[in-house]
Design a protein that fits this description.
Order of helices and strands: HHHHHHHHHEHEEHEEHHEHHEEE
Strand content: 5-15%
Distance between the termini: 86 Å
Radius of gyration: 48 Å
Largest sheet: 5 strands, mixed
Number of helices: 15
Helix content: 55-70%
Length: 562
């Protein structure tokens, strides 16, 4: 990622919360206006006009804007107003949804909804009190409040808890991945310390013996000058190997016991500046090595510079072991975007004498070292025989990427990227507080689901009870017994008769008028059902009372077909 991409990504990350806040505020304002217009329009349909419409619309809009910060008080006020003015009914559903989502704690939510229900029923009874129908009003109010406030609140609460649980699981998974990476890092540090100790104990001892013995041979008077020079090269190589071993041990122990001091002169000697020294040492050992440098010399990053040195060193070592005496060409080319290190050894007719010790990991290590700095290494047979090792290393600094197994990465399993990529560790008290809305028990979600089902069942029961109550009332408004029929006398005033009889305005008497004997001319008739059962299941006994001129002029008892 280049600098401009990083700046754009950083700006987007910083601006995202502000953009989200602006969008939410705009959405809340639009919703408040819509609810205000709906409230005013509903009131206008019921016959209100003038300042009342403006006041209802403004109050609905204001309560909608306050429902997030004060869910319980806003729900109580909205419930009280909804029972007096039908324009607040849509707002009550929105407020119930918001209160179910934002009131923390099941006990507090229960208290808030209970208070709102009491205010709703109480204000409705005070406003429409009738000694004949108090239970009817209570049933109607209960049914309305359950449908517009309780059911939306329970559904919102269940949905919010489910979303919070999924979000919490995503964040916890990311935190577990981060903690696992930390544990793996600590394990690597311990393993590096163990490897450093083994290298110091084994290789250090062997190199120390080589240095002591070569030092003793160098001062042996029986050696020729040529032999002393060769022994001096061996002793210098062993001393250099000891210094490199100490540096490697210090790197392995870095972060465990504190880094060892680094010899900067030695670091420079083990970069591209030290390749010439490697070639000179190889020539002093009797090998035909030629060094060529092309292009304008440019500085490399420390890791890439050291990788170039190691490529030449490993290639020369392999040539010494596998092709002793063969000519070696070392070329260092500075290209516009990278440096190329190429070592080509010639072919030999005879194999190397003695046993060749090789671990088979040198080239693998070179490839890994080059990959870590963003480069590559190629090794293989050269044209015309021999062997060729080439490395391409960039000038810039490239960081190695860290990988997480896809089967363990929750972000690879979710359609949306999970949070936590470098974010602070999650505050689990927030998630626990949100999940506490459903109670502290592990079955809070199950209990909430049961609550929704119970509320729906309660609504059905209330509807059934209200339907039965309405049916019984309808039957009583359209039925009399034969004794009442006999008590009514022809010639009595219409007002007196109607006061003694039911109104007949009920669904049970629908379709009875027009059946039976012909009605007197210019009369108005009241048809009622009989409380007694007819002689046949196919007929229904009825009573008819006809009025004309304010008096009862006729009453008849007959049966009609069902």
């Amino acid at each position: 990622m280049n600098a401009s991409s990083k700046i754009w990504a950083g700006w987007t990350w910083l601006a995202a919360p502000e953009l989200w806040s602006r969008r939410r505020t705009a959405g809340e304002v639009v919703l408040a206006l819509v609810l205000g217009l709906m409230a005013a329009g509903t009131e206008e349909l019921t016959g209100s006009a003038g300042l009342r419409l403006l006041g209802v619309g403004a109050a609905a809009a204001l309560l909608s804007l306050l429902r997030r910060r004060m869910p319980a008080p806003v729900m109580a006020v909205t419930a009280a107003l909804a029972s007096l003015m039908s324009g607040f009914a849509p707002l009550l559903m929105v407020v119930g949804w918001s209160a179910g989502r934002r009131i923390v704690g099941a006990g507090r939510a229960l208290v808030a909804f209970t208070v709102a229900y009491g205010l709703f029923v109480g204000t409705m009874l005070v406003d429409t009190w009738s000694e004949q129908t108090p239970m009817t009003m209570v049933l109607l109010a209960t049914l309305f409040f359950l449908a517009t406030a309780v059911v939306p609140g329970l559904a919102s609460r269940y949905w919010t808890q489910r979303r919070t649980l999924l979000h919490t699981l995503q964040q916890r998974n990311v935190q577990l991945l981060r903690e696992r990476a930390m544990v793996e890092g600590q394990a690597r540090l311990r393993e590096r310390q163990r490897i450093a100790q083994d290298m110091h104990d084994s290789l250090g001892h062997q190199l120390a013996l080589i240095s002591v013995h070569t030092g003793a041979l160098e001062v042996d008077p029986e050696l020729t000058p040529r032999q002393r020079e060769a022994v001096g090269v061996l002793r210098d190589a062993s001393v250099t190997a000891m210094h490199e071993l100490r540096e490697v041990v210090g790197i392995l122990r870095d972060g465990v016991e504190g880094p060892a001091p680094v010899d900067e002169s030695g670091r420079v000697a083990r970069g591209t500046a030290g390749i010439e020294g490697l070639v000179e040492a190889a020539r002093a050992a009797g090998n035909a090595v030629e060094l060529r440098c092309k292009g304008e010399v440019r500085a490399l990053a420390a890791a890439a510079d050291h990788a170039a040195y190691r490529i030449v060193q490993e290639a020369l070592t392999n040539a010494f072991k596998h092709a002793p005496g063969a000519p070696i060409d070392v070329e260092l080319r500075y290209e516009p975007d990278s440096v190329v290190v190429e070592i080509v050894s010639g072919a030999v007719g005879a194999s190397a004498p003695g046993e060749v010790v090789s671990g088979g990991q040198g080239l693998t290590g070179l490839r890994e070292r080059a990959r870590l700095v963003g480069g590559i290494v190629h090794a293989g047979p050269a044209d015309g025989g021999g062997f060729r090792v080439a490395g391409v290393l960039p000038y810039g600094v490239v960081e190695a990427a860290l990988f997480v197994a896809a089967e363990d990465d929750f972000r690879q399993q979710s359609p949306k990227a999970a949070l936590g990529n470098g974010d602070p560790v999650m505050d689990w008290t927030v998630a626990e507080r949100e999940l506490a809305m459903g109670g502290k028990s592990s079955g809070g979600g199950f209990a909430l689901g049961c609550g929704i089902a119970l509320a729906a069942l309660l609504v059905l029961v209330v509807v059934g009870v209200f339907g039965m109550f309405f049916l019984v009332g309808s039957v009583s408004d359209g039925m009399i017994d034969p004794a009442q029929y006999e008590q009514v006398k022809i010639g009595a005033s219409e007002e007196e008769v109607r006061d003694q009889l039911p109104s007949g305005d009920t669904i049970t008497t629908t379709g009875l008028s027009g059946k039976g004997p012909k009605e007197p001319a210019d009369s108005k008739c009241l048809v009622l059902m009989s409380s007694e059962v007819g002689d046949s299941i196919e007929t229904e006994p009825v009573f008819r009372f006809c009025f004309k001129g304010g008096k009862l002029i006729e009453k008849k008892s007959y049966e009609v077909s069902r």
